[in-house]
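Reply to dn_fold:

You asked what the input looked like. This is it:
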Amino acid sequence: MDQDDALTQWLAAFRDAVSAGKFVKLALAKPTAAAGDLKAVDVRPILVKEALKLSFTYHYRTRDVVKNYGLEESAALISELLNGKINSGRLYTLAADISLARREAGFKLSRAPASQKRLPELSHNRAKQRFIESAGRTYLNRLGVTDAQGKVHKNSQDKFRQINKYVEVLDGLIKQSDSGKKLRIVDMGAGKGYLTFALYDHLANSLKLDVDVVGVEQREDLVALCNDIARAEDFKNLRFVQGSIAKHDCAGADIVIALHACDTATDDAINKAIRAKASLIVVAPCCHKQIRREMEGGSGTHSLDVLMRHGTYVDRMAEMVTDGLRAELLELQGYKTKLFEFVSDAHTPKNVMIVASRQASDRRPEDVEKLRESIAATKAQFGIVTHHLERLLDRS
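and this is what came back:
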């Protein structure tokens, strides 16, 4: 089957699914260089004034744009994207999941059993999608998030929102980097496993991906609890191990996650992920004591005395400087980074996430030099001798 045949068949399957009322959604990912800052496109059916439309959400680096089109216009737009800006697409129908991926010889089609069992809500103003519903998730009950009937406890509402936002973020990142092979995920500092269980459930049970997830936790009682729950839920490829972040071997990991690892433990996780050549690193740092101490004891060249004499502002500045340097140090190691708030600070103050994606090509020497100069200038400005992540990366 040549490239045109594969694309034609895939677009025909899309039209047929929409016409037959079996279309669930469509995801376009893996942008080409011609895509600019366009990262991905999602398509879903909606009703607008009682007429069926297809809603396109264009995910750009800093914003999302939503536009609605009819069937034939949608098919033409999708074809145009796949012929220049996008390398892969996945069509979800009630009959099957059909993937289209660009290879050296052209596009290749592949089919999988349908992962979606029901049609989406077509209302244009539908309720916000939850990636993890509370009903039927007995692990949420075992973890104390819900009661026996699946209702979220009042004091767990923020935790439940955080779980869903976390899964939503990881869902998008993993779909963009989906290689079709088994995903090995290490969750450093898993704690009680709220987010680890939810992510495994979504990837293994909702998306039907082949995954192996390991939660690393220092406290033996939490490791025992989480393993008991994983066995009770029959989550066969989810396990928890006892140990520290600094000592855990991440070799073979595709994705390394560390949420709310305190102070330099986040740097330990990043260092382990870099040395494992993980394709995706996701951290939500907690505490920034190391850089705060250096800023207080150093002799920086900044002119921010009006702010730095107030402890609250020193804390905030330390957070920004610590994570900004982490991002540049990751980029120096060949990663592309993004920092953003993944949940509102009304729900948790630990709301900044750093996402790093490993790039296939080496950095140009001039880009490496600019990064080194920027890191050195920031350290000099704030009186920082060394960032803990620097120290770890220098050890070879």
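The mean pLDDT is 89.
Hope that clears it up.
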